[in-house]
Structure formats: structure tokens, C-alpha cells
Amino acid sequence: TLKASSYPVLDDIAASLRAQPDVRVRVEGHTDSIGKDRFNLALSQQRALAIVNYLVGAGIDAGRLEFEGFGETRPIAKNDTKEHRAQNRRVELRTLSGGAPGTQEAPSR
Predict the structure, then answer these.
(1) Pick the residue with more confidence: 104 or 66?
(2) How far apart are CA 22 and CA 47, in angstroms?
(3) Chain-centre distance of CA 82, in angstroms?
(4) What is the spatial distance between Cα 86 and Cα 66, in angstroms, rounded to a whole number?
(5) Ramachandran region, residue 58 (left: φ > 0; alpha: ψ -120 to 50; beta: rest)
(6) pLDDT digits 0-9 by tens, 23-41
(7) H helix or E strand, kind and range, residue 12
(8) What's the 3-state SS for the chain?
(9) Would you call 84 helix, strand, or coil by DSSP?
(10) Cα separation, 40 vs 29, whole angstroms
């Protein structure tokens, strides 16, 4: 479930994608290490798909978007505190083609 506070960031991403129609992106979902691996993988996929669905709803062609979930396999912080686990629960957008390579983080749950 997307938080309402995520909408302005996602709207900015959608506007940027509309302004750059040749850009394709991959939406990557991640989780913390709490829970079983299989559950976290599914959760990360659902997290990424929620962003894709939002962007498609904002007028971005689904053919320009792909998504993948990585579960807990790519942490950016240790999973030793509540704050660190929150950092690992995230979605990242990676440019695949048509723009400058890079990553932009989109907030999730």
C-alpha cells in the first residue's frame, strides 16, 4: 500500500518520464530481513508492482516499465535496528535506456 506522502514524489517521477518519452526504467523492490525469504521476495515484488501500477495510472506506458523484487538480498543498511530496517524497505528506479544512468528512490510503505 502506498502512503499518501509518496504521491508527490511519484507524481514528479511520472512528470519526468512524460518529459522524456524515450526513457525506460526498472522498478526494484526491497525488504528488510524480518520474515521468511519467500514472503520477503513476494512482498518486494508487490512493492515494485505498486509503483509500476501508479505510474501507469499516471499515464506512463507500461511498455516503458519493468519491475523486479529482490526481497532482503540487497540491503543498504544493517537490519539491526528499527531505523535501519526501515531504510531497507524501499523501491528504487533504475534507468534502463534513453536517459542518464542512475537510480532514484521512491518511498514505499
Answers:
(1) 66
(2) 25
(3) 20
(4) 24
(5) alpha
(6) 999 999 999 999 999 999 9
(7) helix 7-19
(8) CCCHHHHHHHHHHHHHHHHCCCCEEEEEECCCCCCCHHHHHHHHHHHHHHHHHHHHHCCCCHHHEEEEECCCCCCCCCCCCHHHHHHHCCEEEEEEECCCCCEEEECCC
(9) helix
(10) 10
